[in-house]
Amino acid sequence: MSNLKKLFNPGSIAVVGASQESGKVGNVITKNLLELGYTGKVFFVNPKHDKIYDQRSYKSLGEIAEKIDLAIIVLPAKIVVPVIRESAGRVKNFVVISAGFSETDEEGREREKELEALAVEKELNILGPNCLGFIIPKLNLNASFAGGMPKAGNVSFVSQSGALAVAIMDIARKENIKFSNIISVGNKMRIDEAEILEYLSQDEGTKVIGMYLEGIKNGPKFIRVAQKVSRIKPIIIIKAGKTEKAQQAISSHTGALAGSDDIMDAVFEKTGVLRAENLADLFALIELVSNTQAPKTNQVAVVTNAGGPGVLTTDAFGGKEIKLGDPNDGIKNKLREFLPAESSVANPIDLLGDAMEDRYAQALDVLDSMEGLGALVCVLTPQDQTPVSKIADRIIAFRDKTDKLVATIFIGGERVERSVAKLKENGIPNFSFPDLAVRAINEYYAWNRRRTADQSGAESAEPIVVDASRQENIAAIIGKAREEKRGALSFPEAQKIMAMYGIKTPSVTDIGAGDSLPEGIGFPAVMKVDSDKVLHKTDKQGVILNIKNREELEKAYAQMEDNFPGERFIIQPMLAIKTELIAGIKIDGIFGPIVVYGLGGIYTEVFKMVDFLVSPGSIQEVKASLAQGKLKFLFEKTRGQAPYDIEGVSKILFGLSLLAREAAEIKELDINPLLVYNDGKEAVAVDVKIII
Amino acid sequence: MSNLKKLFNPGSIAVVGASQESGKVGNVITKNLLELGYTGKVFFVNPKHDKIYDQRSYKSLGEIAEKIDLAIIVLPAKIVVPVIRESAGRVKNFVVISAGFSETDEEGREREKELEALAVEKELNILGPNCLGFIIPKLNLNASFAGGMPKAGNVSFVSQSGALAVAIMDIARKENIKFSNIISVGNKMRIDEAEILEYLSQDEGTKVIGMYLEGIKNGPKFIRVAQKVSRIKPIIIIKAGKTEKAQQAISSHTGALAGSDDIMDAVFEKTGVLRAENLADLFALIELVSNTQAPKTNQVAVVTNAGGPGVLTTDAFGGKEIKLGDPNDGIKNKLREFLPAESSVANPIDLLGDAMEDRYAQALDVLDSMEGLGALVCVLTPQDQTPVSKIADRIIAFRDKTDKLVATIFIGGERVERSVAKLKENGIPNFSFPDLAVRAINEYYAWNRRRTADQSGAESAEPIVVDASRQENIAAIIGKAREEKRGALSFPEAQKIMAMYGIKTPSVTDIGAGDSLPEGIGFPAVMKVDSDKVLHKTDKQGVILNIKNREELEKAYAQMEDNFPGERFIIQPMLAIKTELIAGIKIDGIFGPIVVYGLGGIYTEVFKMVDFLVSPGSIQEVKASLAQGKLKFLFEKTRGQAPYDIEGVSKILFGLSLLAREAAEIKELDINPLLVYNDGKEAVAVDVKIII
């Protein structure tokens, strides 16, 4: 990965396309560099002028004798490549503000390819093109065409939308959110979200990384980097573009079950990224993480001066990992010492509507000694007599002496406004409503818990080694099918591949076109057409089940030959059905091969009990996914029912993930049904469709 | 229902417990009535003083010669009843502010009963006790102990939490939400949410009713009234107390599946109440409904000056009834006439970051002519050059000439603050983030659609007549079981009751304790213990399935007699299983008997495909619930599978609802499984458990 340190910490900057003319993008950047306190050297390049704001205007980058750490390019798209090429020998870091690249038309896409080739050849770091630039408040450096300078702090925000970055800076000013970096990534030609994550993970001033993304440039790289960075700092992403776009035609059943947004969720889950559901959620999480340490336990105490908001806060804990802790009798007695008789000392602690600042402070002090507590939340509604500001002061003072996460939910308008501002200035996150607060604390806790768990187990997974002989064998099978111009493998071919990965299939009798039926077939049996032209066999009556004897078999064969003249058929034993799963491989446009698995049967789409495995690193990872996923009920003992074989299913799914890695020729794979048992029998892949 | 018009529009008010002493509740109310502009007559009652704020202080209500429309009682709990009794002959409307009633202890509960008896006897309207009072801004009447006077408008807010009402007024001031009534209902002794809804539905100044509720006083009354009022005005309720409290022990399977909050959802759905998910949602809905007419169609157009927020807005439409409409070519061409080439003219219309007010105005004008459009939403992020205020002006001007709903999503902080305030002052709802806006518009649209549909079909349902002879027969069966001290009916008894409601059960052979097995039993068969002591038969091995012949039957009987000495048994034919449902009756603490139904089988709890019927008014209502509910997939043709018999299942479920009405003795009822078919066979209630 490229070293972006110089790009984002330049000692000298040249603006190519600098301007004194108001209304021009180049002018905004020029003024931002001159007026906001940046202390590095700034050079202006514009051949049309001699001076810009009383500074020399150079004809070209080449004219500048001094060292240039960063060049900001604000030129018409057409001349961007030549200008960069000219100086690529001595300038290595660029921000290309100019639009007119791959976001436009064919010409623009060509232009971007050219720029990219240049960057690769000359080893250049290029942010953009088509971006807003970046801002580093600590350096008073606004290398963007957005006005103003946010407060310096520990939040890095990375945006694929320049406009949203501007709006977010405006909101942040009001909410007292302080930034270490604001980076607009534009077309992400060379520097994509993964590169930025890698850089920010090393940036000492950054405690939390927020991102607005519409797409992921390189799926596997993103997974690798996000997984690593998540263990160091929380990554909070708002991913836009959830609504499904029309997908390409998909011929496998499992493929159709895996929406791209579901896969995104699975990737975020796997990598430990916190997904913000919306902008409110994004701000809540950023504010919380920026200002507090993650709660060490999942136990939370809530104090409130109002019953209703207390109930709403309690509701917000429903389905969360964090819980309202139970104060023991010692704590309750201490609370009773100073609280009125009508107060509730069960969590949430109701201080009553007439609570003054002392009651809040005393309650917090008592609760601070509650064993195993991770966080304290103060709820307040501004009754006429409520000393809002004094209460805020006491909460601030308490925060200074506790090791627990402290957050507030002051619900109101003008009556709380100034105190909320004070809380925020003092680094106490305040949330307007209970559910935002509880959700954010829950996510923060879960991030920290996962990170701790990850760190203990992360090193143990063995690296996956590709089995070259298997690859060769598969290539031979697929090569033959391709020679015969088939789009899918026959069942016997698929069966061979399954066997290589230890996946059991039923024994099969192969009937070539026009063959007569062999003797010795066991009953009950199933007869199926086996052709790459009949992919949805069941729908097209290409499967006859429960054939009981020779006579029925002959009738079935006659019927099949009638329906599918010239095709091959297979006969399988009719297996006992206990539970049907479905499993397969889908090639995702961003993340590559994904293993999809879920509950099968005719209501697969109704129940949508489907989960995903994105390049699992080990069979243990698969097992953990199964044990926590939507199918976990199968692997638990329920109502006298024996659990299904989780080891066996894990082996099969991990096998599929290996196959996906080893056989890039496979476009889709569908095992439907995968019969699983809870009586010791091995799972069987009854039908296997492999599209090549 | 009582007439509350005088209570909430009093021409004269007496404050009993008035006070000049700062810090006292009576003082706040006294000052609120004197200082905020109320023009009715105000009398003060306080025997300890001669004058209060230069007005005469009466010794008692009796001393006041003039007519008193309303008395506000701010006295110690102990003397509330005697004071009201004394004046009950001439004062009919009371607000009891005083706490110390059923919210406290046994003594308080007794006191409240006494007060209620008095109210019934003397036909008094009493708001409270233990309430904040109420506020009618139009009359400048603050009959509460919250300070200040909200702006007058068309929003009524009813709160079970006084503190939350105060916080909401404070937020409303900032958000420019204007009120017709703010009513704190306290303990809801006589005037509960249903009474208030009834009153507010007739209150001309009220367009939308918002409520914070922790409980529902009288379930059936609430359903009746809410259903009626919802057809007139939107009711938006935030219902707190979602998290399940420990329930009483429940012996039926269906009973355990029906959480009280799920039932609340079903009631809100049935009655057309909009349930706010949280406070942000409540405010969004109130602001929208207060200021706009419901969209007439579900087609929405969005204009934006920023791509990212446009994508986020598009995302918010996922899963909603409202949709982004497709502009036709005519509209697109008109948009292209004035938009830059890089603009997108597909919905959302991207006006680009450099959009000035003209571009917004022109785009809105063009879109206004889009056929079938119901709403227009303007998204804005404040770029440096964006003329936020001028754009707001043009949107306001546009709103004045269109018949469509107009809303804005201005995303930002200081840069948009003043313009947002201007929009709100001019009655254009603004939402800070896209999803709040889209959800609120969707709910408003859905309310209006339902209301229109309801009004066309509402009168057609026939009233349900209780069948007295059935009631008698059931009472006899249950009476006999009770005499025998049984807690549940035997299967043959349950079978008789099922037959009365046209619900088919399998034929049964009854084996009394010690009986020998009769001849002529068909195979395969099932043998079960039939005892009120063995409610969970399957778990306790009280069911032997698939008995194939006489020999197996005799073995089974011997085993059963061993396991359950002295009990009765039944033999049923083993039926073919196609799909198992589960259905039953649960008595809800608030809403009475609820019919619960869902998908059966061993994974019932995993799939949680359960729905509820709250006193359905007709078989058509049941059918509609089935067709739209979680089981709808069964009644649709899917993947070559014939639909199940919706008429048959509706008949059974409606039969259960009739049974629930007619047999109050039934505590729980469980049909498990209810076998349903899609091949013309009639559904069968295989096992029926009736707890009495």
Mean pLDDT of chain A: 92
- Strand order within the widest beta sheet of chain A: 3-4-2-1-5-6-7
- Under CATH, the topology of the domain at 294-458 in chain A can be stated as Rossmann fold
Helix/sheet category of chain A: alpha/beta
What is the CATH architecture descriptor of the domain at 294-458 in chain A?
Answer: 3-Layer(aba) Sandwich
Bin the strand percentage of chain A.
15-25%
Our Rg estimate of chain A from Cα atoms comes to: 31 Å
How many strands appear in the DSSP assignment of chain A? Answer: 29
Name of the CATH first level of the domain at 294-458 in chain A? Alpha Beta
Main β-sheet of chain A, in a few words? Answer: 7 strands, mixed
Please report the two chains with the greatest interface, counting residues with C-beta closer than 8 angstroms to the partner's C-beta: A-B, 74 and 74 residues
The quaternary organization reads as homodimer
Helix proportion range of chain A = 25-40%
* Principal-axes shape call of chain A: flat
Figure out the total of helices of chain A.
Answer: 22
CATH superfamily of the domain at 294-458 in chain A: Succinyl-CoA synthetase domains
Describe it:
- Two copies of one chain form a homodimer.
- Chain A is α/β, with parallel strands linked by helices.
- Among the domains of chain A are: 294-458, Succinyl-CoA synthetase domains (Rossmann fold, 3-Layer(aba) Sandwich); 462-506 and 575-692, ATP-grasp fold, B domain (D-amino Acid Aminotransferase, Chain A, domain 1), CATH 3.30.470.20; 507-573, Dna Ligase, domain 1 (2-Layer Sandwich), CATH 3.30.1490.
- Chain A is built from 22 helices and 29 strands.
- Chain A has a seven-stranded mixed β-sheet, with helices on one face. A seven-stranded mixed β-sheet of chain A has the order 9-8-11-10-12-13-14, sandwiched between helices. In chain A, strands 24, 25, 26, 27, 28 and 29 form a six-stranded antiparallel β-sheet that branches.
- In chain A, strand 24 and strand 25 form a beta hairpin.
- In chain A, helix 11 (307-316) packs parallel to helix 16, helix 12 runs antiparallel to helix 13 and helix 13 runs parallel beside helix 14.
- The longest helix of chain A is centred in the middle third of the chain and has 24 residues, at 434-457.
- In chain A, 50% of the residues are buried.
- The model of chain A is unreliable at 245-250 (pLDDT under 50).
- The interface between A and B is large, with 74 and 74 residues.
